[in-house]
Specification:
Largest sheet: 5 strands, parallel
Number of strands: 5
Structural class: alpha/beta
CATH architecture: 3-Layer(aba) Sandwich
Helix content: 25-40%
CATH topology: Rossmann fold
Radius of gyration: 13 Å
Number of helices: 5
Order of helices and strands: EHEHEHEHEH
CATH superfamily: Response regulator
Amino acid sequence: MAKVLAVEDDSDIQIVLKMVLTRLGKCEVVLSGEGTPVVDLAREHQPAFILLDVMLPDMSGTEVIQRLKADPATKDIPVIFLTARSIPSEAQEALSLGALGYLAKPFEPMALVPQINALLSKVGNAITIGV
């Protein structure tokens, strides 16, 4: 069972992510509503990938990914950004910082796992899709 670290400050979106990723993706989900603990959580849990909100209350997603990529223990963990803002320059910045991709919110829950797998395929990974 793949482990996922989902970093999202909106509790409603956390609930949907956890439900979709555990039921459809057959993943174990670790949640964080802030960016500050992400590197420590990633070190501790070694997730298969991280879903990272761009706008967090304590720091930006770009700051979080920079910290993850600077740490030898977390630098190779794939990161996929989630954002309500789909600005091309921000998407390009996310990719330049090492993100696999950028998913827009709101997202269609039933399409989320296939979208994640399409991005994870870039690094030869995938999560199970179950019903």
